[in-house]
């Protein structure tokens, strides 16, 4: 038998990774990558930062760690991998084990034979099916040419108003990039919240922050794009509002590009992603599929999900690259949908299940807490972190975590991702041994303190109430005592202003006489982050008050305006 | 029965934590903290940063998160906890369940009865038993008064030369603080390396960095302190060298302060720490002990260790505080000795076992790898990380990790700490789902890439050689081909200069004719970080060369000078 012939369709992230790993496993295989675009191995997650001007040298998006552009010559010389760019694979002939392709420059077609095939065709950006969507000035931020287009707009500095459609990860990253380009932005989101991987309450905190930078419109979609002479002039919303703009970036999600696979008769999963097993093998044993075009299992729910993340694409490429040479020897287990994005000075991240998703999936017996604290001591200029943790009530198993704030979000999300991957229960986390020194964390790390709060709640030591629940109670004018237990100077500086009474924690034991005579009356206590709120609740409970609640995350996690 | 009487000896970190937790569990208990020093709840890990001028307001070391100084009034008002500062407990009378104490201001003595007692007496800083140790100008950095003394020196700006004795965590932190105070430093360490929680090779990389800031002398101890009129003038070393200086900071470690416990007949462990069980209970069921005065189990070796870390002290305080109220309901499992320190622009951290320690403890069947890479993409201004990972060869279980560099060390150490706590095998780590976006990490996180290298090595895909082993081979003039596979421009910029030949990876397949005729001749390949070195090794192996090795961590991890 001669050298193994390997064809990879797709040259962005997963494809080149699979090809490179295959080469490392077999020096003699004949490996060819077909790539429809003109570039290879693009760091597509870096596009927003190129557009936003974090760096100016476009070739950095295409460089190896050693600073060499990964072009056809690089792939041949360093990796002995053939690459055919600007070449579209139009059909997979599984019977003959060949692919048909078209050279997009010359229009010539051809066929190439494979022993093993890898499909890494990525995803397609959704576009709203509304009038005017073909106007000049409307783009996505998915391809390098999209990035080039937007970077040119930044450099020219002519366009002053833009609309970003879609409040997901890409929309948020695009928004930052364009804002840094000096463009006035309106963000449109069809749903009642941004970033649906967050629970509503957490998303609202992000929204509050975003609104300090750009205009945000929720629960409103695009009805049409309005133009003159083929050029975008405004976006018309479903409620009739017209927003004048010269640029619209559409970021309403992506769908798996399953066309070739579907036409070749490979099984497609319920999410639209190509069906693969844990070896990244499709229903044809000679064909593997990886990256944004596949669906993979969620490690908690065991249900298939479409998880178009650059890191997973790379990991899947490594698995497929080894398996197609060595037989199915390594597995890709799945995802817990860990994600993060930068939003000006904030990090916003999540791993595992949100409360909303958990409830939707039938996890009814769950517990949640919100913890707000600095990431480092105040004397080391610590920044705020707000974490929402979700755990299974009976087993104590950690199901998910969301973290936002100007603090070290990335580390927190990584810690929880490891906890979920390791199937930690809350009790495993309360005495975790994490790296502590004041330049890096609090003595009790924010993640561990979050686990402490959850442990206390699971033990029934206290009850809490979310900001949203409290807002509802206020609306319904429910009789309750609202208790801010901070110091008077803190109260002067900022307060919720919802009819609360100030009794500093240090005075509470002496001022119990001011509490309601009816000991079953609801009392809601808080402080800046609700550590003192918790202590106040314990004091009141010990004195016979039976209906005391702590406001989750205190004033720090209050997502509405506050009195100053 | 009346209110439970709880006495806590020690008011720094663990003690107040236990007292506060006990209060939260029981509003009616009578709780008293005895504290020998004048302050309470000092953030002692923050002393070096106060000395170094990271912040100027000393009271921040004593503040609650809300910015209130935790003095006696605070403890009484907010927590209903009695505190007796400047009061030394001189004896524990276990029979009568009383402590005897002396008011250090008035000299008056007294007795107080307890139902439950907590010993949180901390540790004592070691001092070298040499002549002159009582001279003025010699200090430790253990107490707040030490910090005050050193901060005064910084503010006065008179002292220009200091010696720091001890290259452990505290020595390193002190060194940074004094350097920032504009003082010229010489660091003395008795052992052949700094930071013994690191393996020698990793420590040498730190040493190389430290030497760009201060003078480092290894394998030399203090013979005596020389003075004039009772004031320090020089440090005399064991080899006779005299180092003129006006200040010497001794940081040669701490020993558990077990005096009271020992005199009371409580069992003391083999490390000198008070013996406690997983409930933090001593051999007397009415006495708990926590913090730097105890010994705790190592979670990997199951052997007792003295682990004087501020985070563990706090966690133990929480456990003891709950147990002494509720009966023994919560456990403190032990430590994996996770630690980190800041060193100018570097982070230096470790968790689990080092290779040296593992070998000492009889783990002979281990595998190690070194990975050097950026923490984030180059276009996001990523910084270097160097990780050494230690795993059990047969089970693949992760035993330890050491991380150093200007990159995000804290997150990396946290990830490995979670992996070890979760008993991850290397295979569990290779497809971890960590938060990825270019502002935060590489597409394949540095930790995951480190696991990939380990997996490849455990599979026997390649062999590597440490910088030290290579240095030895060079000394012995062993016949070998040294191969740098980077690009010519990289080679021009910096190279090892040890007789290597440059063959860029992209040319290697065409220049195999330049390889030794004897295919069993040893070939050692590297690049900047040894990713290309690995690829070169695979090419050579595929072409029949049987003795190819990759230099661990490449040029980035070479701890000696390089040619420029």
Automatic annotation (TrEMBL), chains A, B:
<dbReference type="Pfam" id="PF07992">
    <property type="entry name" value="Pyr_redox_2"/>
</dbReference>
<dbReference type="GO" id="GO:0016491">
    <property type="term" value="F:oxidoreductase activity"/>
</dbReference>
<keyword id="KW-0274">FAD</keyword>
<dbReference type="InterPro" id="IPR050260">
    <property type="entry name" value="FAD-bd_OxRdtase"/>
</dbReference>
<dbReference type="InterPro" id="IPR016156">
    <property type="entry name" value="FAD/NAD-linked_Rdtase_dimer_sf"/>
</dbReference>
<keyword id="KW-0560">Oxidoreductase</keyword>
<keyword id="KW-0285">Flavoprotein</keyword>
<feature type="domain" description="Rhodanese">
    <location>
        <begin position="476"/>
        <end position="559"/>
    </location>
</feature>
<dbReference type="InterPro" id="IPR001763">
    <property type="entry name" value="Rhodanese-like_dom"/>
</dbReference>
<dbReference type="Pfam" id="PF02852">
    <property type="entry name" value="Pyr_redox_dim"/>
</dbReference>
<dbReference type="InterPro" id="IPR036873">
    <property type="entry name" value="Rhodanese-like_dom_sf"/>
</dbReference>
<keyword id="KW-0676">Redox-active center</keyword>
<dbReference type="InterPro" id="IPR023753">
    <property type="entry name" value="FAD/NAD-binding_dom"/>
</dbReference>
<dbReference type="Pfam" id="PF00581">
    <property type="entry name" value="Rhodanese"/>
</dbReference>
<comment type="similarity">
    <text>Belongs to the class-III pyridine nucleotide-disulfide oxidoreductase family.</text>
</comment>
<dbReference type="InterPro" id="IPR036188">
    <property type="entry name" value="FAD/NAD-bd_sf"/>
</dbReference>
<protein>
    <submittedName>
        <fullName>NAD(FAD)-dependent dehydrogenase</fullName>
    </submittedName>
</protein>
<dbReference type="InterPro" id="IPR004099">
    <property type="entry name" value="Pyr_nucl-diS_OxRdtase_dimer"/>
</dbReference>
